[in-house]
Known about the structure:
The chain is mainly α and 68 residues long. The chain contains 3 helices and no strands.
Amino acid sequence: xxxxxxxxxxxxxxxxxxxxxxxxxxxxxxxxxxxxxxxxxxxxxxxxxxxxxxxxxxxxxxxxxxxx
Length: 68
């Protein structure tokens, strides 16, 4: 397999990973309680408690790392 094909495949995989992570985080945030700007720590705690949102965050970090 050529280096070009490997590079393009990894770039495509990283892009798909980032997009799926966005969808997961969106789904997790939509089921979370109302976000209040006055209580950022509580808001972050409720988002992290959502397994879907957290999985999206981890997947997004992996996808970002693949791009880098």
